[in-house]
Amino acid sequence: MTRIRRGYIARRRRIKKRLFVSSFRGGLSKRTRSITQQERRALASSHRDRDRQKINFRRLWITRINSVIREGWVSYSYSYSRLIHDLYKSELLLNRKILAQIAIANKNCLYLISNESIKEVNWLEGICRSNLNGVPRRMNSGRVKMNKKSSQKKYESTQSIKTF
């Protein structure tokens, strides 16, 4: 019997894999079985390292911000966590990447941002303390418990609606 040549599909698949690992050294770029193993490993590593890269950059930005804060540029006995807390309370939505760039490029600007957030948070906390009478508060059970005055007003308003 004459020899039958196989189709081109498997060859085309192997050539694609060879192109992927063509820069690898030694037999890792020549043997078909090693090529498939190395391709799998490379793709898994790249997927894992993309996540690690995000984590590492975030750590770098946090370190840069913290170092500038602790140098004394911002405020005495002020920390990174306090700065982020104040920024969220004052609704200044600056991400850590931008804050790190500001901290490196212009420390005075970070000083102004932090002082502005401190002033605004102190002002907001003063308002919140004065308006606690009519605001419902949460208890440990998770149910909302109203203060006596506000619950009586609510009851009176429902009674007046029913009479009409």
UniProtKB/TrEMBL annotation:
One of its GO terms (molecular function) is rRNA binding. It is found in: Plastid. GO terms for cellular component: plastid; ribonucleoprotein complex; ribosome. Pfam families: Ribosomal_L20. One of its GO terms (biological process) is translation. CDD domains: Ribosomal_L20. Residues 138-164 are annotated as: Disordered. Its main location: plastid. Keywords: Chloroplast, Plastid, Ribonucleoprotein, Ribosomal protein, RNA-binding, rRNA-binding. Belongs to the bacterial ribosomal protein bL20 family. NCBIfam families: rplT_bact. This is Large ribosomal subunit protein bL20c. It comes from Cyphia tortilis.
